[in-house]
């Protein structure tokens, strides 16, 4: 490949945001999503999740996620407002320099709640095409996981 046709590898920033309406009370949803080691119950392709910290809920809780393909990601909870949202950062396991995500719930009615999962990411060195594909993958991953969550909670 000549220099003129080779795509430049650099750092890219982007964001992903997916939202879903679930016909369930917000307390029921919060109980499910705030169990930060219960991911295998609703997040796509998660084999298991374990605590790496003595703190189990709130700021400072640390988890290690193992996916079906063997990939592992270590995440640290950096913000927490009980029954509203929590934010976390991944410190390794992703092709990123920065990954900061938030999962939030917002009651719509007494029996329906909007769940929003969004993130900011900044890549390690990759091409624009590789980054765009990764962002697309994350969007599909969030959407599929949120649909899984809805199907578990609307039973």
How would you describe what is shown here?
With 155 residues, the chain is of the alpha+beta class. Helices cover 22% and strands 43% of the residues. The protein is built from two helices and seven strands, in the order βαββββββα. It has helices at 26-33, 128-153, and strands at residues 13-22, 46-51, 62-67, 72-81, 85-92, 96-109, 112-123. Strands 1-7-6-5-4-3-2 form a seven-stranded antiparallel beta sheet, covered by helices on one side. The chain starts with 12 loop residues before the first strand and ends with a helix. The mean pLDDT is 95.
- The whole-angstrom Rg is 17 Å
Measured between the Cα atoms of the first and last residue, the distance is 54 Å
Question: Could you tell me the strand content as a percent range?
Answer: 35-45%
Number of E strands = 7
Uncertain stretches of 5 or more adjacent residues = none
Structural class: alpha+beta
Q: Provide the spatial order of strands within the biggest beta sheet.
A: 1-7-6-5-4-3-2
Mean pLDDT: 95
| Element-by-element helix/strand order | EHEEEEEEH
Approximate shape: globular
What oligomerization state is this entry in?
Answer: single chain
- Biggest sheet, open or closed, and with what strands and sense? 7 strands, antiparallel
Helix content: 10-25%
Summed up, the helix count is 2
């Amino acid at each position: 490949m000549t220099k003129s046709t080779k795509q430049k590898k650099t750092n890219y920033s982007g964001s992903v945001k997916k939202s879903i309406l679930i016909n369930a009370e917000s307390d029921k949803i919060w109980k499910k999503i705030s169990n930060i080691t219960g991911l295998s119950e609703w997040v796509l392709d998660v084999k298991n999740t374990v605590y790496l910290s003595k703190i189990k809920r709130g700021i400072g809780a640390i988890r290690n996620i193992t996916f079906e393909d063997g990939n592992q990601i270590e995440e640290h909870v950096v913000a927490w407002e009980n029954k509203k949202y929590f934010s976390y950062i991944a410190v390794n396991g992703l092709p990123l320099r920065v990954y900061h995500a938030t999962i939030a719930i917002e009651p719509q009615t007494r029996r329906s709640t909007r769940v929003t999962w969004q993130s900011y990411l900044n890549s390690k060195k990759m091409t624009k095409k590789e980054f765009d594909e990764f962002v697309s993958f994350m969007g599909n991953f969030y959407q599929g996981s949120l649909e899984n969550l809805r199907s578990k909670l609307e039973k």
